[in-house]
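Input sequence (130 aa), recorded before submission:
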Amino acid sequence: MSKTLIFRILWVFSGLLLIWTLVFPMIPKKKENSKTSITDERLDVVVLNGTKREKLAYSVSLYLRSKGIDVLYYGNADSIYAQTLIIDRRDSLNLSYAKKVARFIKGKILYIPDPDNIAPVFVILGNDYK
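Predicted structure, token format:
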């Protein structure tokens, strides 16, 4: 092979390499999962209104659903609560279920086991909820 042929091959190769490094990062990557859920698995929640504000549990349940959390039930609590509570019913050690919900709702996180296992998290909205 002559030196000019090797030089041309190297020149073409370096040009292709330059184009590859400039263009390849601009190609949009395929999204693996377009779902915007905060959990890999389904997270069921019950939302209860512990205030006198009407439709508060309904509006909070819509908000949580928009964040990828499944609200099984919403309604009124048995009484008025001063503070919002996020109750983890399954994970006594890490409170991981309640912490996932607490990303979106501020409140006191508690562990209270649920023998019926209706949902892993109960949210009771208190007068402090904004």
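Checked by second reader. Strands lie at 44-49, 70-76, 85-88, 108-111, 121-125.
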